[in-house]
Amino acid sequence: MSNADKLEQLAELIPIWGRELGFQAVGITDTNLHQQEKDLQRWLDKGYQGDMKWMGEHGNKRSRPDELLPGTKRVISARMNYLAPATEPIRVLKDSSKAYVSRYALGRDYHKLIRKRLSQLAKQIEDFIGREHGARAFVDSAPVMERPLAEKAGLGWTGKHTLLINREAGSWFFLGEIFTNLELPLNQEQEKNQCGDCKACLQVCPTDAFPKPYVLDARRCISYLTIEYDGLIPEEFRDPIGNRVFGCDDCQAICPWNKYAQHTHEQDFLPRHKLHDSDLLELFSWNEEEFLQRTAGSPLRRIGYQRWQRNLAIGLGNAKASAEAHSALTEKLPNTDAVLAEHFRWAITQQENPQRRRKRKIKRPDNN
Ligand code: B12
Ligand code: SF4
Description:
Residues 186-215 form the 4Fe-4S ferredoxin-type domain. With 368 residues, the chain is of the alpha+beta class. The protein has helices at 3-20, 34-45, 65-68, 89-94, 110-129, 146-152, 200-204, 222-228, 235-241, 250-253, 280-284, 288-294, 304-318, 323-332, 338-352, and strands spanning 25-29, 74-81, 100-101, 136-138, 157-158, 164-165, 173-180, 244-246. The longest helix is centred in the N-terminal third of the chain and has 20 residues, at 110-129. Cobalamin binds at residues 36, 39-40, 42-43, 52, 55, 102, 104, 139-140, 144-148, 161-164, 171, 173-175, 214-216, 218, 221, 223-224, 228, 247-249, 251.
């Protein structure tokens, strides 16, 4: 068989092998991200990355896969559903006594699982061609523009909320990819953008984090504030954060395309410790040891106990006034550092003044 025929056959086998390994779809693309490189630079110039300095720290490696891994000719992009059944995002979001944890973070951390499956896929490719192909697997683990690559590989279109949507599966999925030096044929068609006139995600955002469609100002995004951002959460954001204690899914939960979302097949992504439906007070009662024990191997572990308590305190400040919430906050207050204490005091004041007007949604200032 000629080399070209072999690559042709391989390009047909990769999506099949990918599905056998638990991915819902796999596509192949070239490495050209010329336009996205310019857009990324504009985004960084605006400062939308906030404290995520790492977003701008790798020169052009993020937008040029062959600079990150020399010799890369193609990117094999894969997606895997994570939404667990019966996790009812909207019901939990609407119940102020509950803690809302982003649906991607309810089970085991996805990085290891997906990277392992991608490495298996890379090995199958190697076995088929009978030599190494300079492959490396990535899952949100290196400077890679995963969403634009997946879009180019035909896995979906970018919604106005900046996430990838697939017409048969919505957007509740992770992305990962393999870089390879094989010049696989490109025959995937890119999915047409199907957002149309809809603006639901832009309008529902509690903190008005989208300066315009397809652009997110991370500094205002609740996902950034509760997961990535360390320190004092500016007061204007505390009311709109509501009961979201780890990440935010509002822009996905409202998206009409998510009525086509399919549940995950992975046991590892099923909720642990009832995290999909826990009371704020119950999670707030965990001491540091319990937090470390119960979040071992979970994405929640990353934020550490301080940020966890900070987020829960904001949630309690937004919960219905109750003697239990008030005393839980006052009891823990003496053992907090200055930053945490500021959030606890704010939450206590909120609890003591239930008549305070709660601004569930805020607007971005006109000048940015
Ligand atoms: C940094 C990051 C974040 C940041 C910033 C998000 C962002 N939109 O940039 C924060 C912490 C806020 C975040 C939040 C979330 N994230 Co995140 N995040 C990433 C990460 C590491 C990089 C994303 C990135 O490159 N951002 C930089 C900006 C510039 O990229 P962009 O938004 O795609 O920007 C494009 C547009 O701005 C456009 N553009 C610029 N100007 C203009 C103008 C016009 C007119 C147009 C049309 C376009 C345009 O060009 C840019 C470049 O292509 C990726 C993993 C990875 N390595 O890629 C995961 C990733 C994007 N996140 C993911 C997830 C699941 C989430 C959350 C849902 C988690 C949660 N529940 O809290 C939220 C969703 C928030 C949201 N609406 O984006 C998934 C998305 C999967 C999917 N279906 O698309 C990814 C791919 C991780 C993964 N491996 O699965 N995330
Ligand atoms: S909510 Fe509407 S505008 Fe936003 S991503 Fe979904 S379809 Fe597109």
